[in-house]
Write a sequence for this structure.
């Protein structure tokens, strides 16, 4: 046999090339012999064709292809069978090695510990959860548990005999209720809400010009790419965490539905269990048979773990938290003794039959991901807050609910993590898909539609057109990554302008896009960057140094279309709008845009929040895109949101007002302050003077008021006529008129757009109807106007309007809020009290401000209700005829005897100075609360100011701007409850400049907080007691200086 060259050849192949004295193991024979057999078969076929006529085929067959004969082929075939049996029963050499301490495993060049693997898995789980949240497209106010059906698979029915193509138990109508999908079947579970809810349909559907609804092809394709990406990540997690992986042949035979070509599914439900039937091919070539394997999923997957097991676990978790010492030392999130009391309430909630695990899920995730302790405790507070019933309503209509906006921060670094939470609350519900948006804000740009069509037509011309209907804009970056879109956007705008300049008789525009997403713009408290915007600078580029005061239209870019939502692109643009409004003192509103993938949305932000247009694809709707961009470039200042009643002539700015004798101009000396917020009163103050009397300073105050509130101008006029001392004196007030009508948000700024037609509109909470009882008549004839009118009388000696008369009102109904642009001018000018030139001057000013408050209360019958750092003024200029110290801002003031509230929603104030009782919202507002606020103002100044204008940020107290009002009340109680603790705090935190006031502030604490607690009985003598303490301390300071 060994005389055969074939056998010799195969024997030589068996020699190990690395060790000539040894042969390969049997496991290596099978591949070589299989190749030999295959080559032999191919050679026989090749030779057979040529040898068929010569009769050689039979001889070749006998020599090479017949088993059982003593031939080389028979020998090789038998050796291969032996090799296969040995290989299939012998463990192969592996490459996975554990270190000697069994702590680290290595595979080739990769080495990791189980901890490393756990961290990797945790990261992938977070990313998968993030991807899933985006794919589910939940509304901002939707709970996942309510919107997503919980698949209790063990309750489902199945029909194993149904061989219909593409059928599975998900289409069994008996399961419709469990799947919450109706008769359309589970396949329509996502499609049904898209069709039913407008706020979802605009994500994937659009209205064609012919009136038919069409899908947004690119958006749908992008969504399915995102689904594939999520499933890939999920498969990776399943593979890593599910033990020994199944063989590929098993995985490939898994099918959840019948195929259209007759193959039966392999996933079934039987007797409440989900079973899989898979084929196992190992050894098939040897045995010629398949193994069929039946497996059943564990009950956790089926949803059977349900409430009982979950609640057992959560009860154990809450018990463990209660046992921690920190639970007894941490404050309650409400009005309880400590966090332990809150956890007891949470235990009751967890044990309830209707407990919703969504409420505690963030806490579980924080523990699972091994977050730092402070994060876990934050999630604990969130969980107990969810489980605590809302506070009982106030017993008095006079109470005004507290709210906060981003303009109420005192001595804050404005870190984004804090600002964003407050900004979300401030903006409220952002309405998108508002019908008529484009016409309202772009329709007045002369010739825009004609020009845009002409420019687009030019873009379609040439061998390499800039725009094609089939493919969209030339150079549009695939994937829409931010950097690539910025590189595409700015040059395109230049090209559009060049075409417009060349072919149209449009005026040249100096505006250009500015793209500096990685460079903070100047002019904000914290570093803030802007993706893209339009500025009045034809040379604007990547290296330009720009300020927020130069940004005309801000823009936000996102590569993912699914980022077009409230928590992402919308909030980011709202943050930019806040900076623009804060930096530009004559800006009434801000226009902007978001570009998420190829989907553009136009925005308008004002003192009520924000509204937006429908979303459109810039590549599919080229005309709309060109119209929007040219509109931004050609709008005049009033169309961009600037106040036309504030004009610039040469190097002077004027504010126009209308008094008895017609229009007057007040010369602007300087801006005093502008509250940095989007939604809210947004107060702006300027120091001005009359052209004929430059020596007498006046102060103009612009703000956006709820029309239901008592007008500040009327209150100031009343106070002045009653001889109230040390309160800013009335000069004039009016409702600003723009475009020939009263300037309010709903009718004037938003051009009458109806937000109830927005695609995501949801009715807001009910608010009380406007109350004329607590509001002075707006016109001299006694009639009332919601928006108000300019008064023909501005004199402080004018008679008061007619007496207030009660009037009936209809039952409370949901109402759409509004704000009116009001202007008040007073005859007193000063600087904020914290800028006082010395501690003695500060005390004197505070004493006189308390005297002013007492006069306003006792003589004017009003409660000011907003004593804060910027509402107490001091005048140290001997040439200034104003009060030496005085109160300003009667925005929130009310008549003490008023029977009902004004009906306006929300009180915006500086929470750091609010009285404890106001924060707890369990007392009717009293003068005692405002006197307590005087204490907190002095306390704050002593901690944050080391001299006039030398303010600082103190982290320990910065959180007073952000935390829950109940928690803040608890902190304030802790500050003043014990005298020795208070003195220790004062010595540690008062600046060197104000250390001398520790004794004075402590004496005030004793009076304001009798026995270290809150007052229970109003004390009219508190006025004189506080003034006496301040006067005595001031005298002591003067003596020590002498």
């Amino acid at each position: 046999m060994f005389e055969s060259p074939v056998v010799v050849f195969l024997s030589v192949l068996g020699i190990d090339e690395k060790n000539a004295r040894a042969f390969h193991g049997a496991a290596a024979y099978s591949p070589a012999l299989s190749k030999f057999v295959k080559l032999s078969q191919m050679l026989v076929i090749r030779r057979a064709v040529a040898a068929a006529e010569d009769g050689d085929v039979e001889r070749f067959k006998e020599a090479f292809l017949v088993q059982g004969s003593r031939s080389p082929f028979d020998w090789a075939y038998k050796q291969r069978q032996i090799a296969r049996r040995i290989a299939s029963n012998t463990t192969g050499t592996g490459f996975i090695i554990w270190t000697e301490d069994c702590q680290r495993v290595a595979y080739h060049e990769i080495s990791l510990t189980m901890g490393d693997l756990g961290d990797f898995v945790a990261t992938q789980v977070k990313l998968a959860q993030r991807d899933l949240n985006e794919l589910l497209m939940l509304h901002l106010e939707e709970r996942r548990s309510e919107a997503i059906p919980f698949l209790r698979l063990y309750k489902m029915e199945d029909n194993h005999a149904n061989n219909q193509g593409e059928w599975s138990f998900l289409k069994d109508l008996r399961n419709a209720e469990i799947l919450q999908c109706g008769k359309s079947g589970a396949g329509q579970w996502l499609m049904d809400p898209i069709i039913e809810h407008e706020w979802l349909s605009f994500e994937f559907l659009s209205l064609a010009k012919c009136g038919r609804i069409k899908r947004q092809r690119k958006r749908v394709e992008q969504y399915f790419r995102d689904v594939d990406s999520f499933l890939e990540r999920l498969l990776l997690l399943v593979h890593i965490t599910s033990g020994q992986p199944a063989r590929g042949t098993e995985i490939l035979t898994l099918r959840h539905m019948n195929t259209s070509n007759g193959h039966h599914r392999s996933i079934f439900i039987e007797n409440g269990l989900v079973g899989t039937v898979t084929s196992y091919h190992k050894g098939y070539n040897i045995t010629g048979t398949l193994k069929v394997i039946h497996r059943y999923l564990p009950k956790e997957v089926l949803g059977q773990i349900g409430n009982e097991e979950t609640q057992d676990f959560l009860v154990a978790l809450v018990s463990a938290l209660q046992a921690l010492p920190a639970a007894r030392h941490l404050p309650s999130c409400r009005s309880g003794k400590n966090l332990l009391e809150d956890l007891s309430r949470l235990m009751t909630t967890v044990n309830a039959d209707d407990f919703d695990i969504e409420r505690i899920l963030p806490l579980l995730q924080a523990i699972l991901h091994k977050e730092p302790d402070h994060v876990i405790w934050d999630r604990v507070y969130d969980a107990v807050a969810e489980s605590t019933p809302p506070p009982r309503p106030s017993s008095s209509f006079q109470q005004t609910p507290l709210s906060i906006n981003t303009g109420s921060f005192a001595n804050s670094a404005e870190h984004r993590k804090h600002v964003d939470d407050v900004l979300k609350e401030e903006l409220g519900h952002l309405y998108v898909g508002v019908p008529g948006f484009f016409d309202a804000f772009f329709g007045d740009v002369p010739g825009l539609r004609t020009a845009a069509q002409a420019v687009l037509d030019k873009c379609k011309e040439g061998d390499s057109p800039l725009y094609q209907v089939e493919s969209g804009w030339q150079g549009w970056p695939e994937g829409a990554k931010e950097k690539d879109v910025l590189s595409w956007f700015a040059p395109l705008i230049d090209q559009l302008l060049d075409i417009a300049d060349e072919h149209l008789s449009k005026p040249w525009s100096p505006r250009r896009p500015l793209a500096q997403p990685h460079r903070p713009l100047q002019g904000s408290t914290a570093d803030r960057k802007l993706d893209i915007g339009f500025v009045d600078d034809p040379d604007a580029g990547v290296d330009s140094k720009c300020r927020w005061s130069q940004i005309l239209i801000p823009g936000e870019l996102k590569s993912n279309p699914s980022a077009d939502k409230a928590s992402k692109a919308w909030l980011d643009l709202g943050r930019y709008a806040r900076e623009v409004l804060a930096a530009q003192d004559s800006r009434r509103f801000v226009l902007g845009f978001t570009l998420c993938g190829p989907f553009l949305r136009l925005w308008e932000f004002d003192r009520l929040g924000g509204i937006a247009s429908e979303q459109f694809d810039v590549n599919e709707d080229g005309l709309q895109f060109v119209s929007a961009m040219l509109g931004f470039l050609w709008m005049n200042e009033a169309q961009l949101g600037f106040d036309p009643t504030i004009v610039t002539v040469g190097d002077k700015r004027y504010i126009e007002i209308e008094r008895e004798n017609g229009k007057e101009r007040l010369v602007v000396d300087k801006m005093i302050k502008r509250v940095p917020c989007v939604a809210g009163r947004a107060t702006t103050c300027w120091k001005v003077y009359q052209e004929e009397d430059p020596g007498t300073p006046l102060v103009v105050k612009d703000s956006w008021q709820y029309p239901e509130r008592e007008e500040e101008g009327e209150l100031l006029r009343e106070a002045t006529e009653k001889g109230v001392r040390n309160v800013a004196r009335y000069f004039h007030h009016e409702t600003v008129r723009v475009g020939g009508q009263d300037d309010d948000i709903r009718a004037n700024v938003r051009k009458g757009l109806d937000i109830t037609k927005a695609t995501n509109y949801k009715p807001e909470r009910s608010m009380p109807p406007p109350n004329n009882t607590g509001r002075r008549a707006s016109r001299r004839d006694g009639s009332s106007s919601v928006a108000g009118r300019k008064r023909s009388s501005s004199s402080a000696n004018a008679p008061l309007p007619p007496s207030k008369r009660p009037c009936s009102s209809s039952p409370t109904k949901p109402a759409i809020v509004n704000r009116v642009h009001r202007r008040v001018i007073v005859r007193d000018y000063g600087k904020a009290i914290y800028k006082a030139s010395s501690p003695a001057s500060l005390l004197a000013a505070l004493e006189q401000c308390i005297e002013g408050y007492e006069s306003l209360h006792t003589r004017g019958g009003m409660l000011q209700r907003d004593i804060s750092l910027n509402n107490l003024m001091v005048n140290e200029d001997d040439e200034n005829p104003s009060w030496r110290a005085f109160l300003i801002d009667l925005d929130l003031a009310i008549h003490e005897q008023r029977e009902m509230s004004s009906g306006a929603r929300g009180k915006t104030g500086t929470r750091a100075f609010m009285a404890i009782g106001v924060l707890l919202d369990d007392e009717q507002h009293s003068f005692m609360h405002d006197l307590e606020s005087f204490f907190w103002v002095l306390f704050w100044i002593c901690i944050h100011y080391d001299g006039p204008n030398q303010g600082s940020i103190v982290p320990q107290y910065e959180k007073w701007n952000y935390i829950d009002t109940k928690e803040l009340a608890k902190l304030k109680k802790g500050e003043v409850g014990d005298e020795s603790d208070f003195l220790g705090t004062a010595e540690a935190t008062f600046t060197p400049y104000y250390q001398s006031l520790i004794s004075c502030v402590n004496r005030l604490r004793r009076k304001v907080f009798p026995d270290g607690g809150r007052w229970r009985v109003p004390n009219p003598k508190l006025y004189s007691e506080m003034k006496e303490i301040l006067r005595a301390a001031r005298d002591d300071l003067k003596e020590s200086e002498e």
